[in-house]
């Protein structure tokens, strides 16, 4: 994982501090940025202040005084936000984490700015997001954007056309993994372990297995075969996984989520274009 770093005194505006926005604020502060967060509710502003950032309801002012602007509002709030800030964005670096809105739309709405599109996941809350960003331009600005996003965790540059699949796989994966962890824990309980013991053991084993695969750089099937002995316990469990179609279900899960991400993205992007009269 690359450790993020930002120039001393860098001013970043995070426009829309919800769950992901709050994680972004926290990570940027830990990297030494001067952060302004925006929100509409008093509780949101108080939470921003508790994190150690400046808090305001004024999106335009926050954007105007910042070097980098991160858009993290809900998709339906984006047209109004873009109208608020578009006349103060000349020359600024903009990173949008708003799901579905395409770079072409953002670039037309914020002419004169340098726009990137990113997709973190909920693990940003603990500084371990796996974040995609589009698209790589190979210049100093791209390296700068990567260093900022690295404050949240690891960063992958991808073509924008992969973003819907990334959303379905990596953006949603914490939910899929949480379901699997819960199911394995319940299996342990059903077989006789106390829940707290089963849960901690599943968490430890899952993390260690992922690290194991990464360090040895082997295909998962290699590790599976190393654990599986003839007529042993593991093969009995694997027969159930195969018989119940768990592996195929996981494949279909990602495929279905990717289709939904694409459909939602197209609808949101069209709405933003319509609202801002972008043709």
What's this model, at a glance?
This protein is of the alpha/beta class and 279 residues long.
* CATH secondary-structure class of the largest domain: Alpha Beta
Distance between the termini: 40 Å
**Mind telling me the C-alpha Rg?**
21 Å
| Poorly predicted runs | none
The total number of structural domains is: 2
Strand count, sense and barrel status of the largest sheet are: 8 strands, mixed
List the helices and strands and how they pair.
Layout: E1 11-15, H1 19-30, E2 34-38, H2 42-51, E3 54-56, H3 59-64, E4 68-71, H4 78-85, E5 93-96, H5 103-109, E6 114-119, E7 129-134, H6 140-149, E8 153-157, H7 163-171, H8 173-191, H9 195-216, H10 220-227, H11 233-243, H12 246-275
Parallel strand pairs: 1-2, 1-4, 2-3, 4-5, 5-6, 7-8
Antiparallel strand pairs: 6-7
């Amino acid at each position: 994982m690359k450790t993020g770093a930002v120039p001393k005194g860098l001013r970043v505006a995070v426009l829309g501090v919800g769950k992901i926005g709050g994680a972004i604020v926290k990570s940027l502060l830990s990297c030494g940025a001067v952060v302004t967060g925006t929100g509409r509710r008093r509780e949101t502003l108080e939470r921003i202040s508790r994190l150690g950032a400046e808090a305001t309801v004024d999106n335009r002012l926050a954007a105007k005084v910042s070097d980098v602007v991160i858009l993290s509002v809900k998709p339906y709030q984006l047209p109004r936000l873009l109208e608020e800030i578009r006349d103060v964005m000349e020359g600024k670096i903009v990173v949008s984490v708003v799901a579905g809105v395409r770079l072409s739309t953002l670039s037309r709405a914020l002419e004169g700015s340098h726009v990137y599109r990113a997709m973190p996941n909920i693990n940003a809350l603990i500084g371990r997001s796996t974040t995609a960003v589009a698209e790589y331009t190979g210049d100093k600005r791209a390296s700068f954007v990567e260093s900022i996003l690295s404050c949240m965790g690891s960063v992958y540059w991808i073509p924008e056309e992969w973003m819907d699949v990334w959303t379905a796989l990596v953006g949603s994966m914490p939910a899929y993994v949480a379901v699997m962890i819960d199911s394995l824990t319940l299996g342990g309980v059903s077989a006789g372990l106390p829940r707290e013991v089963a849960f901690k053991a599943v968490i430890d084993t899952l993390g260690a297995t992922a690290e194991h695969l990464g360090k040895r750089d082997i295909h998962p099937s290699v590790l599976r075969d190393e654990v599986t002995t003839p007529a042993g316990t593991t093969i009995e469990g694997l027969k159930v996984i195969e018989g119940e179609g768990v592996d195929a279900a996981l494949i279909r899960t990602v495929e279905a989520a990717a289709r939904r991400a694409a459909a939602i993205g197209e609808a949101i992007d069209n709405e933003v274009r319509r609202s801002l009269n972008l043709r």
